[in-house]
């Protein structure tokens, strides 16, 4: 069983709308959580990195939240643009053993 | 810096042939990672290096896979012999440190084994 579960698997929204992507994990202990954006045919690009002590981190219209108690993270996209159409991948790292666990990703499509 | 550079971008080879994927990390980065991405399994970490030394290769699927980093500016991932199930996109990434810094990915090599 994957230790990082993302939902929804796919999402279609209209341009200008907001959306929230979810990431639940069971990795423990936990070191940090990253959100990546991956455009079709390209490598992932880092959006945010959060350690267990951080609750929220923003990168422009992207805001990630983390609840280390419930082991949940979300990525909120505000005022979506067509260029936000991509896969968003959640990655959770454990300390010391350098173990990284990847979510399957959420495929977001923004339509005009 | 031009970012992480991978070559080739696309590779089509016949089953049984040797395949070598190449990566040039960002100058000054201490960590280099090799990933594989498929529709079925998503992104998987294969192996990573710290200061040119392989640290964890537990993600390498079989002995057919090997990776080297002869110097700080070059790494290879070799598959010998290749099999159709090795078809995937292989990414190389580098980062300044391990845990709290951004990893920069290359464009990937799309490998097709027929």
Number of alpha- plus pi-helical segments of chain A = 0
Q: What share of residues of chain B is helical?
A: under 10%
Determine the mean pLDDT of chain B: 93
Poorly predicted sequence stretches spanning 5 or more consecutive residues of chain A: none
Largest sheet of chain A: 6 strands, mixed
Q: Structural class of the helix and strand makeup of chain A?
A: mainly beta
Portion in beta strands of chain B: over 45%
Assembly state (oligomeric): heterodimer
Shape of chain B: globular
Largest interface: A-B, 19 and 21 residues
How would you describe this structure to a colleague?
The complex is a heterodimer of chains A (112) and B (114). Chain A has 112 residues and is mainly beta. Chain A is built from no helices and 11 strands. In chain A, the strands form 2 sheets. In chain A, strands 2, 4, 5, 9, 10 and 11 form a 6-stranded mixed sheet that branches. The N and C termini of chain A lie far apart (37 Å). Chain B is mainly β and 114 residues long. Chain B contains no helices and 11 strands. In chain B, the strands form 2 sheets. In chain B, strands 2, 4, 5, 6, 9, 10 and 11 form a 7-stranded mixed sheet that branches. In chain B, a hairpin with a 3-residue loop joins strand 4 (31-38) and strand 5. The chains are: A mainly beta (112), B mainly beta (114). The interface between A and B is medium-sized, with 19 and 21 residues.
Structure summarized in a few sentences:
The complex is a heterodimer of chains A (112) and B (114). Chain A is mostly beta strands and 112 residues long.
Keywords:
heterodimer; A: 112 residues; mainly beta; 11 strands; globular; B: 114 residues; 4-stranded antiparallel β-sheet
What layout of secondary structure does this protein have?
The complex is a heterodimer of chains A (112) and B (114).
Chain A: E1 4-7, E2 10-14, E3 19-25, E4 32-38, E5 45-51, E6 56-59, E7 62-67, E8 72-77, E9 86-93, E10 100-102, E11 106-111
Parallel strand pairs in A: 2-11
Antiparallel strand pairs in A: 1-3, 3-8, 4-5, 4-9, 6-7, 7-8, 9-10, 9-11
Chain B: E1 5-7, E2 10-13, E3 19-24, E4 31-38, E5 42-50, E6 53-56, E7 65-71, E8 74-79, E9 88-95, E10 103-105, E11 109-113
Parallel strand pairs in B: 2-11
Antiparallel strand pairs in B: 1-3, 3-8, 4-5, 4-9, 5-6, 7-8, 9-10, 9-11
């Amino acid at each position: 069983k994957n230790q990082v579960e993302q939902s929804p698997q796919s999402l279609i929204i209209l341009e200008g709308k907001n959306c929230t992507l979810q990431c639940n994990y069971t990795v423990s202990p936990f070191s940090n959580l990253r959100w990546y954006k991956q455009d079709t045919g390209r490598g992932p690009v880092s959006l945010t990195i959060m350690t267990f002590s951080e609750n929220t981190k923003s990168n422009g219209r992207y805001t990630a939240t983390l609840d280390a108690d419930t082991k949940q993270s979300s990525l909120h996209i505000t005022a979506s643009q067509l260029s936000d159409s991509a896969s968003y991948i959640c990655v959770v790292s454990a300390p010391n053993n350098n173990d990284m666990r990847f979510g399957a990703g959420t495929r977001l499509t923004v339509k005009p | 810096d031009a970012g992480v550079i991978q070559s080739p971008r696309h590779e089509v080879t016949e089953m049984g042939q040797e395949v070598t994927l190449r990566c040039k990390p960002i100058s000054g980065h201490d960590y280099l990672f090799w990933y594989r991405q498929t529709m079925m399994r998503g992104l998987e970490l294969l192996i990573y290096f710290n200061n040119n030394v392989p640290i964890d290769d537990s993600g390498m699927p079989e002995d057919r896979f090997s990776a080297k980093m002869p110097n700080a500016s070059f790494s290879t991932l070799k598959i010998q012999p290749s099999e159709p199930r090795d078809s995937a996109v292989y990414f190389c990434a580098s980062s300044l440190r391990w845990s709290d810094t951004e990893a920069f990915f290359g464009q990937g090599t799309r490998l097709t084994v027929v």
